[in-house]
Amino acid sequence: MLEQIKQTADYIRARVENLPDTAIILGTGLGALVDHIEDKKYIPYSEIPNFPVSTVEGHSGNLIFGRLGSRPVMAMQGRFHYYEGYDMKQVTFPIRVMKALGISTLFVSNAAGGMNKEFRVGDVMIITDHINLFPENPLRGKNYAELGPRFPAMTEPYDKKLIALADQIAAERDIRVMHGVYVGTPGPTFETPAEYEYFRIIGGDAVGMSTVPEVIVARHADMRVFGVSVITDLGGKDVTDVPTHEEVQKAAQAAQPRMMEIMRELVARF
Ligand code: HPA
């Protein structure tokens, strides 16, 4: 694995002039942030040695290097989901490469189903913590001390200072933001009413099929992390709406300008 990380990082380093210290995973609801990145250089995943290739409809696969405001950034356009069949090492490989390239702060976004009864479809939720319900931890197996400790603390998975700054930015712009705990599940099924209820009872506010593996690996590598979810559907035992991929995409689209504004400002000001 160390050799693969090095090979991939070397490949990218040879192609990018100003390596950034900031990376953004453009999940559902944040795709249009690409339009605000200037002087873009695209590297398709298919050309990057050791990179898996994204397969899901609506997710294109590129690494993008450029500037967001005045800050050099690296963006992942499309991520690797566990439900696509990738193993945990593949899902989180790009995070390892980011670290090797010198990334110290990671911004992530996703779409999620809301269990918190205060939430509405289209809400932006700042992730304050997560619960890992994936069947495997991405750090299972041999630990390489070069990459991080065997038993990493997860006391502050999402950086409190970045959360406070995001709150301030949202307040200045009168954008409603919720806070919550993200439950990461393998998918690809949406939850049964009893499962949404269960996730709420154990302390979850929203549930989705990504993010947790990447954040675990980023924290293992001592990167600072900020995450947001767009609430695209609501679940629970009293909810009869049937979530669909189309509905999720539509709700994410509607929330996109608000998500984007928060992220853009945050990256500019942190
Ligand atoms: N459950 C799991 N993942 C999701 C959901 C959901 O309700 N909505 C968007 N991603």
Describe the protein in words.
The structure is a single chain. With 270 residues, this protein is of the alpha/beta class. The protein contains six helices and nine strands, in the order H-E-E-E-E-H-E-E-H-E-H-E-H-E-H. It has helices spanning 2-13, 88-101, 160-172, 193-201, 212-220, 245-269, and strands at residues 22-26, 37-44, 62-68, 71-77, 105-114, 124-132, 177-184, 206-208, 224-234. The chain is globular and about 55 Å long. Bound molecules: hypoxanthine (HPA). Hypoxanthine (HPA) is lined by residues 111-113, 190-191, 207-209, 232-233, 235, 243, 248.
Summarize the structure.
The chain is an alpha/beta fold. The chain contains six helices and nine strands, in the order αββββαββαβαβαβα.
Quickly list its features:
single chain; 270 residues; alpha/beta; 6 helices; binds hypoxanthine
What level of helicity do the residues show? 25-40%
Helix-strand category: alpha/beta
| Strand order of the biggest β-sheet | 5-8-7-6-9
Largest sheet: 5 strands, mixed, barrel
What ligand molecules are bound, each kind once? Answer: hypoxanthine
Count of helical stretches: 6
Give the C-alpha Rg. 17 Å
Give the rounded overall mean pLDDT: 93
User: Would you identify the regions where 5 or more consecutive residues have pLDDT less than 50?
Assistant: none
How do the SSEs run, as a string of H and E? HEEEEHEEHEHEHEH
Topology:
Elements: H1 2-13, E1 22-26, E2 37-44, E3 62-68, E4 71-77, H2 88-101, E5 105-114, E6 124-132, H3 160-172, E7 177-184, H4 193-201, E8 206-208, H5 212-220, E9 224-234, H6 245-269
Parallel strand pairs: 1-4, 1-5, 5-9, 6-7, 7-8
Antiparallel strand pairs: 2-3, 3-4, 5-8, 6-9
Helix pairs in contact: 1-2, 2-5, 3-6
The structure holds hypoxanthine.
